[in-house]
């Protein structure tokens, strides 16, 4: 099993992938374009999903390890106007990064993956959030017909997480 990315590197890559996501959204002809890899969603829906998820995880991290379920998303709803939506998306990412930095990698945190090999810590949440953001960045890029390869360290860590981490919980019935 390969060594996973260190916490500061995870945070840097979350920020980097989030920036790439917003760049794709910026260049889209419309927020109403259908996302082929998420056929029920438009690009707006994808931005809303990612932003609400970052806000929800920030609240979950802040609630501490005794929280019994993910906390409700906090803050304003996703605005429909593109510039405001992009600012909201950036603020959502910043909330997540701030919560992760404040808690640190070893701080306990409620997670949905229970007894898998991935610990129930903020470090594991950061790792999973990087993969979530990386996948949806690719979704946005595919929507524009301009998919970019994942950075090698993100792709390798994604395979590692899938094989030995949270996904084991889903398939070990």
UniProtKB/TrEMBL annotation:
An example Gene Ontology CC term for this record: plasma membrane
Positions of the Mycothiol-dependent maleylpyruvate isomerase metal-binding domain: 11-141
Cited Pfam families: MDMPI_N
Domain of life: Bacteria
Gene3D superfamilies: dinb family like domain
Protein name as catalogued: TIGR03083 family protein
MF annotations from Gene Ontology: metal ion binding
Database matches in PANTHER family: CONSERVED PROTEIN (PTHR40758)
InterPro entries from the UniProt entry: DinB/YfiT-like, Maleyloyr_isom, MDMPI_metal-binding
């Amino acid at each position: 099993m390969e060594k996973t990315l260190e916490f500061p590197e995870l945070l840097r890559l979350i920020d980097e992938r989030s920036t790439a996501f917003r760049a794709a959204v910026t260049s889209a002809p419309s927020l109403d374009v259908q996302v082929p890899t998420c056929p029920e969603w438009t690009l707006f829906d994808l931005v809303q999903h990612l932003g609400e998820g970052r806000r929800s995880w920030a609240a979950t991290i802040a609630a501490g390890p005794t929280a019994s379920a993910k906390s409700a998303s906090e803050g304003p709803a996703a605005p429909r106007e593109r510039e405001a939506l992009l600012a909201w998306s950036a603020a959502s990412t910043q909330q997540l990064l701030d919560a992760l930095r404040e808690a640190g990698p070893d701080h306990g945190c409620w997670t949905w993956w229970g007894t898998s090999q991935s610990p129930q810590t903020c470090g594991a949440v950061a790792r999973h959030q990087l993969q979530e953001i990386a996948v949806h960045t690719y979704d946005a890029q595919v929507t524009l017909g301009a998919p970019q390869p994942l950075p090698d360290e993100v792709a390798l860590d994604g395979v590692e997480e899938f094989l030995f981490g949270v996904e084991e919980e889903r398939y070990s019935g």
